[in-house]
Write the C-alpha cells for this entry.
Amino acid sequence: MSKVVIFSPSRFSLYTITVTELLLRKGVEVQAIFVRKLVNPKRFVSEFSRDGTRLLRKIWKKLVLRQKAYAPANFETIASLMRIEGIHFHNVDELAEAHGIPIYYCQDLNDASVLEGLNTLKPEVIVFTGGGLIRKDVLASAGAGVLNCHMGMLPSYRGMDVVEWPILKGDLVHIGLTVHFMDEGVDTGDILRTRRVDVVRGETIKQLRDRFEPIMCREFVSTIVDFLAKKVERQPQKKGDGKQYFVMHPRLVRVAEEKLSKLILSKEDQ
Amino acid sequence: MPMNDNDINALWASIRILGSEKVATGLSPLEHLEPCLNAFGLRSLDLPAVDWQVEPDMLTKEASFKESNHAILLNLRRCLYTGKEMETVRNWAEKLMRFCEVRLPSLRQRAIEKCGNPANANLLVLHVTAFLVDYALNSKDLRFLNTALKLADFNWVINERSIARKLNGNTSDIEMALFQFRVLLSIEYAMTELTGEEES
C-alpha cells in the first residue's frame, strides 16, 4: 500500500480534511498528519504586513465561518462536496482519531521535529494542503517529493492571484489548476497534471474561486493516486516558460471583475 | 485612489503657470510625458528638447535595489525611450519588481538605510515607481503596473493632496511635486492603455 504524509495549514482546514478522507477511501495509507499550530504571533505579523486586511478576511472565512462561508449555490463548493461525500469531521483531529492516524503539531512545517518525523516515517510522497513555503531539507526528506495543487495553470501562471491574472489579461484558456511537485522556486517544480476550468456565465471571481475548491480536491486526489500507481509522469518545467505573479492590487482586481462579466457576456452573445 | 480628470486638469494648469524654467529641473520630471498629456487632452509645455543620452556603463552594475540610484533609474527610463539596452532594462525591471513585492512592508526602512535620509529614500522609490510604470507601458506587462500601483499607494511616496501645495513651495518641493504628478498621470495613462479601465 502506498504511504503518504499530509501537511496541513491548520486543524480547521476543510481542504485538508476532504483531501485526506478521499485519499483514505482510495486505499492510500496516511502515515501521519503534520499540522501548523494556529497561534503564531510572528507568522501573523509577517503575513499581515504582506496581505493586510486580506489576511483578516481569510482568517474570518477559514477559521470562523468555515462551511458557513459558502452560501447555497447552484454549483459545487467544498462545503457541498463534504456533504455529498458524507465527510462530517469538524477538524483534522477528529479525522485522525477516527482513522487512527498520528497527528503532530508544529509551529512551522520546516521545524526540526517535522524533519525528524519524516526521516523516521520515510513517506513515498508528501501531500501539501497548505502551510507556507517548504525548505530544501524538508523537500529532500519527502520521498518522491512534496505534491501541491496550484490554483493556476503552470507553467504560465506562477505565484499569487493566478485566478485573477488570466482574467485581467483576457486569457480565459489559462484558468485552471495544476498538480505539481514543490521545489525551491515559486511553483517551478515538475508538473503531473493540469486541468482547465471554464468560467460560467454571470459568476464573480469569488464564485469562481469557490467553484475551484472541490475541483481541486478531486483532481488532487486522483492525480496522487495515479502517481502512486505510476500512471502519470513528471514533466519538468523550464524557468523561462512562465512568469511569477504577485498579489493583485485592488484596482486591478476591480478591472478583472468587470472584464469577467463582460467577457462572459460577449462569449454568450456569439 | 484613481485621479479623476478634474484633479489632473487643475494640477496641470498650476504646472503650466510655473513656466518652463522652473519645470526643467535636473531630475527631468516631465521628460517623455507627451503620450500621457495627449491622452488626457493636456497641452504640452514648451520645454527645451532633451538629448536622451544613455550611459551603458552605468548599467553594468548588478541589477538590484541595493545598487540602484537616481541616475541609474533615469538612465533606465531613457533606454526605454530610445529602445537601447533593452535586455539590461528588462533584467533591472524584473529584479526591482520582485524586490519591491517581496519587501513591500519593509521597503521604506530599507530605502532609508540605503539612502541615509527619508527625503532621498522617498525620491528613490518614486524613481523606481516611475521606471516600473514606463516599463509596464513599454512591455505591456501588467505585473509592473501592479507593483507601481502598490508603491504609489504609500503616502510617503506620493501624497496626492500635497502636490498642489508643493507646487507653490521651494525648488526642491516643486521638483518633487512635478515628479509625483508625472507618476500619477502615467499610472492613469497605463491603466487606460493596458487594462481599458473606464472611469467610474
Notes: The interface with chain A takes residues 2, 97-98, 101, 104-106, 141-143, 145-147, 149-150, 153, 191, 195-197 of chain B (CB under 8 Å). The radius of gyration of chain B is 16 Å.
